[in-house]
Amino acid sequence: MKTTGLLVLPALASLVAAAPAPLVESNKLRRVIYRSELQARAKELDNIAKRNKGTRAWGTPGHWETLDWIEQQIPKEYYNVERQYFNISRTIHDEISITVDGVAATQVNGFTGGPNGTVSAPLVAIPNFGCDASDYPATVAGKIALVHRGNCNFGQKNARAGTAGAVGLVVWNNDPTSLTPTLGTPDLYNVTEFIVSAFLGQAEGAALVEKVGTGSLPATVKALFHYSVESTANIIATTKGGNQNSIITSGAHTDSVPAGPGINDNGSGTIAQIEVAKALTKFSVNNAIRFCWWAAEEDGLLGSEHYTSTIPEAEAAKIVMNLNFDMLASPNYLYSIYDGDGSTFASEYASVGSGLIEQTFIDFFKADGKSSVPTEFDGRSDYDGFLQVGIPAGGVFMGAEGIKTEEEQKLFGGTAGKPYDACYHAACDDENNLDYGAFVTGAKSMADALAKYGRSIEGFPFPRPAAKLKPRRLAEEPMVPNRAKGKHGKHGGCSQTQEA
Ligand SMILES: *[C@@H]1O[C@H](CO)[C@@H](O)[C@H](O)[C@H]1NC(C)=O
Ligand SMILES: *[C@@H]1O[C@H](CO)[C@@H](O)[C@H](O)[C@H]1NC(C)=O
Ligand SMILES: *[C@@H]1O[C@H](CO)[C@@H](O)[C@H](O)[C@H]1NC(C)=O
Ligand SMILES: *[C@@H]1O[C@H](CO)[C@@H](O)[C@H](O)[C@H]1NC(C)=O
């Protein structure tokens, strides 16, 4: 028997190898997504963060190790795998100071953006929030304006103060927590340049307003910085099979914030893509599937924006749609789906294609006996760059630091009045932060959409009418961090710091 078996086995093996893989089907693909595997990957990713000072932020060893770890797991016989390097120009503050009447303040932060320099002039306190031209008296000309945080973006305060003739700006905080403020770009506020500015803590700011009163005090504001150009990379894996002229992209980001391991945000999307990519190898596809692991999402969607702003027009024309998966395992989750048709949240990005993707996810949750709700389709995640070049997008998001409502508790369980993810952007976003039941559902929603569109894009608006893409960049040009582009909206909240 044994001998016979040994003789038969190689023949059987070659028969099995020769048999073409069956065309992917949602239920079959979903059946080979395992909770235990998702859990094992979360532990591995958490261990990467743990042995790298608790973070996987881009540019750190923890992020490079994350990229190696992802690449090791992608089956190379099934996918063409590419590492797309790009540069990011970081602002490094060298000296930021505010000195008033000879006293140097202690709670001072530098803005990202704005001119590099030093100004010395009388400091005057501006009533209101300094958001409107009418807030500034004519006497502010040649002076440093002191304004309160609130009511409008920092860039707007800076632009209005500058337009009124102020030579410098101090913004003081309206709450005791520290933050890294960003000005954005001057053209957003109809000026060509910002004025030198610095950010002051709440207590010192309040004391200063008192001390200055309606008069003025001699002051110096220093904002000295340099740029540091650093490299990072996206990982792009495309199925060898399937029509290479009709590609479905799926994206998740690989970096965490510096403050934490980022296992839900967005380790969960990264892990789900690894597991779905592995499971897909048991099947064949009609349309190519391209998994993208984006870098530097946390600094303003830089990896995905790099990809979409440098992709040649002919290559962009081959991408049917982009699916986005970020935070797929929030502990106090809700199942929210980007409102691609703009039926709940009016959106300039709404389109027929994005509406069809939304419906695909709605149908998945419904068939699985689960509720789902729409969430703003506002371009504040890695799908933004795709929308900018006319590619429809959609995806699932399980909530960040926003607060669960009573109504959402009825639909999804969990705890109303508490954040969807209390560990959002924090050190406790580790393997124990995840809801693994929700995680399995999230990964299966990814498998379902990829199986459906990997089989057929019938009825989907594709090919699209030829479009001239803008904005285009040179791939060698470094990206500039812009935190204001982070996750935002009803279920997200403001991690960005451009908004006062
Ligand atoms: C910039 O100017 C345009 C056109 O005058 C105006 O519509 C817009 O509100 C201005 N933006 C800001 C931030 O002032
Ligand atoms: C800012 O000014 C300092 C001192 O003048 C200089 O060393 C530094 O290179 C400048 N930074 C930039 C980005 O120009
Ligand atoms: C994680 O993914 C979600 C869903 O796409 C996204 O909204 C969020 O911005 C991502 N996290 C961060 C920190 O950007
Ligand atoms: C990144 O910058 C370095 C140094 O300026 C340069 O040598 C390298 O080619 C750049 N990389 C890319 C991908 O543009």
UniProtKB/TrEMBL annotation:
Pfam families the record matches: PA (PF02225), Peptidase_M28 (PF04389)
InterPro entries documented for this protein: M28_fam (IPR045175), PA_dom_sf (IPR046450), PA_domain (IPR003137), Peptidase_M28 (IPR007484)
Keyword field: Aminopeptidase, Hydrolase, Metal-binding, Protease, Signal, Zinc
Cofactor(s) demanded: Zn(2+)
One BP annotation, GO: proteolysis
MF GO annotations: aminopeptidase activity; metal ion binding; metalloexopeptidase activity
Family affiliation: Belongs to the peptidase M28 family. M28B subfamily.
PANTHER family hit by this protein: METALLOPEPTIDASE M28 FAMILY MEMBER, PEPTIDASE M28 DOMAIN-CONTAINING PROTEIN
Full protein name: Peptide hydrolase
